[in-house]
Write the C-alpha cells for this entry.
Amino acid sequence: MAANIGFFGMLHQIYNAVGTIASAVGRGANALDNLGKWAEEQTAAFVDEAQIERQAKIAQLRASKAAQAQALVIENQTAPATNQ
C-alpha cells in the first residue's frame, strides 16, 4: 500500500507542476498582450504626431507662398513703368 501512496504523490506533484507551467504561460501571454497594447498606443501617438507635423508644414508653406505672392504684387505696384 505504501507504493500506491508514492504513486499518487508523484501524480499530485506532476499535476502541480503542470498547473504551475500553465499559470506561467498565462502570465506570459498577459504580459505579451500588455506589450502589444502599449505598442499600438505608441504607434497611434506617432501617427497623430506625424499628421500634426505635416499639417503644420503645409500651413507654413501656404503662408510662405501667400507672402511671396503679396510681395510680388507690392513689387509690381511700386516698380516704375517702362516704355517699350
Remarks:
- The CA atoms of residues 44 and 54 lie 15 Å apart.
- The two ends are 125 Å apart (CA to CA).
- The mean pLDDT is 89.
- The helical segments are 2-78.
